[in-house]
Design goal:
Layout (H helix, E strand, L loop, with lengths): L2 H18 L2 H21 L2 H10 L5 H15 L52
Helix pairs in contact: 2-3, 2-4
Length: about 130
């Protein structure tokens, strides 16, 4: 496989795992908090803006949306039971081993035999 394709596959795997553990909510909250700090710092000092942002008393619209979506995702995060799909109906077969009594004899005689056919003389040639 080309190295670029392997890197792309790894990147897709990392992003999928990141989203599976809820990392996308952390990124969205960080974006919302950054926007809130910028908005609040326009009318007051940076310290006051940070305090307003993380106090929880003045959430923005994006914070409300993120919280609502995260709550809905947790509610709908029920366990999904996957059933095995049988495409062909087959009854299970039991294997019965043959009963071997005494010694096992080979199917082919092990003693060498002389060939009865003699090759044609002279050997055939290509034209």
């Amino acid at each position: 496989m080309p190295p670029a394709l392997l890197r792309l596959g790894r990147l897709v795997l990392i992003v999928a795992l990141f989203c599976a553990v809820g990392g996308h909510w952390a990124v969205l909250r960080t974006v919302a908090w950054s926007g809130m700090i910028i908005d609040y710092s326009r009318g007051a000092s940076l310290a006051v803006a940070v305090e307003k942002t993380f106090s929880g008393k003045y959430p923005c619209g994006m914070c409300h949306s993120i919280e609502k979506s995260a709550r809905d995702e947790k509610k709908s995060g029920q366990i999904v039971v996957l059933k095995k799909i049988d495409f062909f109906h087959e009854t299970p077969r039991a294997f019965v081993a043959p009963i071997v009594s005494g010694t096992v004899s080979p199917l082919v005689d092990a003693a060498p035999t002389a060939r009865s056919l003699v090759p044609a003389l002279p050997p055939p040639r290509r034209a």
